[in-house]
Design brief:
InterPro entries: Choice_anch_I (IPR055188), Mesenchyme-surface_protein (IPR052956), Phytase-like_dom (IPR027372), Quino_amine_DH_bsu (IPR011044), WD40/YVTN_repeat-like_dom_sf (IPR015943). This protein is 5% helix and 41% strand. It contains six helices and 54 strands. Strands 31-37-36-35-34 form a five-stranded mixed beta sheet, covered by helices on one side. It has a four-stranded antiparallel beta sheet with strand order 1-30-29-28, with no helix packed on it. The two termini are 43 Å apart.
Length: 777
């Protein structure tokens, strides 16, 4: 195949051709001729809320920093359910992984500080696990599962601990295995869901593994809180099996209560997750006033196949909602997060009338679509429960009741105005670290605390307590940029799917537009067009890459837009798979150029990462050293298409002493007569030490042509990106992989979210202003 990589000075307008090729109205086979600009996607959601009307992320605190002295930092430690002391200053969270509870000082919510932990081994047994906590006065009620894996003989207790000195003043046996606790608004009683959970590896007679029934059944415990803790007493509330059967529950003889919430009238709402039911109980009398089924829901236009493709044409048929968390909206409605368990899960949340059990509103596919629009779609969960809403809390913002719904798998919390329970209105999405579990509103301080349970020390993606402040008062110290910083629009009511962005290029025709591409975390390969004039930046079209008329999957790591097409740097799983690929404006691959065989043979799993066009030459960056090159010296390549020749130059990487770390290159660009190179470490969160753009003068002499050691080019630091990434008040994202100087003169940087695989999933898109100012070092 003849190379077309020399066509770098053609005068055709790529933008109009790109738009025509991306348009759903452009018939296949009729996309080669120039055409006027056609339909681009628009966003159905206004994400650009005024500062006074949104939450601002203030801090992300990794709870492994709160570990006991001498504990290995790699020890798994999580934050699941949290509560806050009445003064709003101390967050107390459960840590089932480490079998303890933790204390965090949030007097300054911008600078949370660990106050240490209390091991359950000190209160009972080393195998005890906390399941929930609730603060009351000077005490915290710690709900504890003491079952120890003996599912047929569940047990548990609630310990009343004085917060000031962390001593237990009372312990009350609960007669079974507990899950969640809630305290009534008037502080008179607490309700505890006694799950007596099933053994997922046990097979009951006539059933499949993990099926119900698995006695004993669950129940509710009511705990009186009048007087001193020595006077508190528990009262068991059992459920009428026939009442539950009449309500249509799945296995009424084994209800397995999950989550509780209490309204201002003292009514308790209780989810029966595995039974797909909800119970309403009078907290004062213990009378069960209503039990009803949560029903089922058909959900269309979602991704249901874990095939590496973000395909939103699938459906799930009449799945049970199987709600987890529940919260009261006023005194007559409840909202549920429909996580699902063994039979169901509908990827959304619902609102019920508690008197009738009617569903007055259901999210349908909108939670999953929200994840897609913000780059948080989790392909690895497509066949299961998608974004998996699990946590939920109801609070009040600016006098409006607001539902806060957490997606366990897509790592976000969404806020909805539920002033009209039958017509919730989406307000905001907030990113979290993986596995948001506990959603704690602190209305007296206009704060939101999210505790996350996923902890991956190997990949340095650690469990956290994240803090957000609502309104103008917190705006000055809020995250910059606000999340989301980049979103996709919808075409024909379907959002453009995206994620794992690692390549950026200026549009040669439009100054306020960039091109980017997804890597192989989501296939098939596509080139995306980004409108920079929108806030947040808007992905408004997607061009599929094809070869011989068929869609292809490529690990696109670099992109350079030319007036008549695109040049892609594609990384291979092995050295020989690294290629420069020339793509026409209609997305068709025109030719491929492989690396020289002797260079490819010296590469491991990290190869081509960036590409830039400079006149008659093409510049590329290799991510890691060749096997035979000196340690710390990586290569920059110059390819001349007219001669089909390669020359190589050396680039000295910064050192690292961190265990498991390595330094490598990501993007390369040509700007103001020099090469700009993005260099980064493999660390994220508080461990990150190097994310920077360096300037390298374009060499006038020849480079080496094979594997001989190349001459190292001098470099100077042009921009330290760590402060920019830290300004988001989240963990620093590991994969800062793309940057470009747009036609408008501004410098833009993007992070690769790895498709949420071993990563938080948040994409940070930075507009750093004038490139001349931003790159002064």
């Amino acid at each position: 195949m003849t190379s077309n990589l020399g066509r770098v000075t053609a005068a055709a307008a790529v933008t109009a051709l790109f738009a025509a090729a991306c348009s759903p109205s452009a018939p296949e086979g009729e996309q080669d001729a120039p055409a006027p600009q056609t339909q681009r996607a628009t966003s159905p959601i206004d994400f650009d809320l005024p500062d006074a009307q949104r939450y601002h992320r203030l801090a992300t605190y990794p709870v492994y920093l709160n570990r006991p002295a001498g504990e290995d930092p790699a020890t798994e430690t999580v934050a699941e359910i949290s509560t806050v002391t009445p003064d709003g200053n101390t967050v107390i969270y459960t840590d089932a992984a480490a079998k303890r509870i933790g204390f965090t000082d949030i007097r300054d919510p911008r600078k949370p500080a660990g106050l240490g932990t209390l091991s359950l081994a000190e209160l009972g047994h080393a195998d005890d696990q906390p399941t929930s906590v609730a603060a009351l006065g000077e005490f915290v009620l710690v709900v504890i599962d003491t079952t120890g894996g003996d599912f047929a003989n569940p047990s548990g207790r609630v310990d009343i601990v004085r917060v000031a000195d962390r001593t237990r003043v009372r312990s009350i046996d609960l007669g079974g295995q507990p899950d969640s606790i809630a305290i009534s608004p008037d502080g008179i009683f607490a309700a505890i869901a006694m799950e007596n959970q099933r053994d997922e590896e046990f097979t009951p007679a006539g059933g499949a593994e993990g099926d119900l029934p698995q006695p004993p059944t669950g129940f509710l415990q009511l705990l009186s809180l009048t007087g001193a803790p020595t006077a508190w007493a528990a009262r068991k509330v059992d459920f009428d099996v026939e009442q539950a059967r009449a309500a249509g529950l799945d296995t009424p003889e084994d209800l397995e209560p999950e989550y509780v919430s209490i309204n201002s009238r003292g009514q308790i709402a209780l989810t029966l997750q595995e039974n797909n039911g909800i119970a309403i109980i009078d907290g004062k009398t213990g009378v069960v006033s209503n039990i009803f089924s949560a029903g089922s829901q058909t959900v269309d236009d979602i991704d249901i196949a874990e095939d590496g493709t973000l395909d939103q044409t699938g459906s799930i048929e009449a799945k049970p909602r199987e709600p987890d968390a529940i919260g009261w909206i006023g005194d007559d409605h409840v909202a549920t997060a429909n996580e699902g368990d063994w039979k169901g899960g509908t990827r959304g949340w619902s609102v019920f009338d508690t008197a009738t059990g009617e569903v007055v509103w259901d999210a349908g596919n909108t939670v999953e679509q929200l994840a897609v629009r913000t780059g948080l779609h989790t392909e690895g969960r497509a066949e299961s429960k998608g974004p998996e809403p699990e946590g939920l809390a109801i609070t009040e913002i600016d006098g409006r009741p607001t539902a806060l719904v957490a997606s366990e798998r897509s790592n976000f919390v969404a806020a909805y105005d539920v002033s009209d329970p039958a017509a919730p209105v989406f307000r905001q999405i907030m990113p979290t670290t993986p596995g948001p579990e506990g959603i704690l509103a602190v209305p007296a301080r206009d704060l939101l605390v999210v505790s996350s349970e996923a902890d991956d020390a190997e990949n340095r993606v650690r469990a956290s307590v994240s803090i957000y402040g609502y309104g103008q008062a917190y705006a000055a110290d809020g995250a910059k940029p606000a999340f989301p910083s980049i979103v996709s629009g919808d075409i024909d009511a379907h959002p453009i799917g995206w994620g794992a962005l690692g390549a950026l290029s200026a549009d040669p025709a439009e100054p306020n537009r960039l091109f980017t591409a997804t890597d192989n975390a989501y296939g098939p390969a596509r080139i995306l067009s980004v409108d920079l004039s929108a806030t947040p930046a808007l992905i408004d079209s997607a061009l599929p890459i094809t070869e011989d008329g068929e869609a292809v999957t490529l690990d696109v790591e670099g992109i350079a837009a030319r007036p008549d097409g695109f040049l892609l740097a594609v990384e291979g799983e092995e050295g020989a798979g690294n290629e420069l690929i020339n793509v026409a404006t209609d997305g068709a691959i025109e030719d491929r150029v492989t690396l020289p065989a002797e260079i490819a043979a010296e590469l491991g799993g990290q190869g081509l990462e960036g590409v830039a066009v400079d006149g008659d030459n093409v510049w590329v960056a290799l991510q890691r050293e060749l096997k035979s090159d000196p340690l710390g010296v990586v290569r920059i390549g110059r390819y001349t298409p007219a001669e089909k020749s390669w020359q190589w130059f050396g680039y000295q990487l910064e050192p690292t002493a961190a265990e498991g770390d390595w330094i490598g290159l990501s993007e390369i660009a040509v700007h103001d007569g020099a090469l700009l190179v993005l260099e980064r470490d493999k660390l994220n969160g508080p461990d990150a030490r190097l994310k920077a753009i360096y300037r390298v003068q374009i060499p006038t002499e020849d480079g080496v042509k094979g594997t001989e050691v190349p001459k190292v080019l001098p470099k100077t630091r042009a921009r330290d990106l760590l402060p920019d990434l830290q300004a988001t008040n989240s963990f620093v994202q590991e994969k800062v992989e793309g940057f470009a100087v747009a036609g408008n003169g501004n410098l833009y940087v993007v992070t690769d979210n790895d498709g949420l695989d071993d990563a938080g999933g948040e994409t940070v898109f930075l507009d750093l202003g004038s490139a001349d100012e931003a790159l002064k070092g």
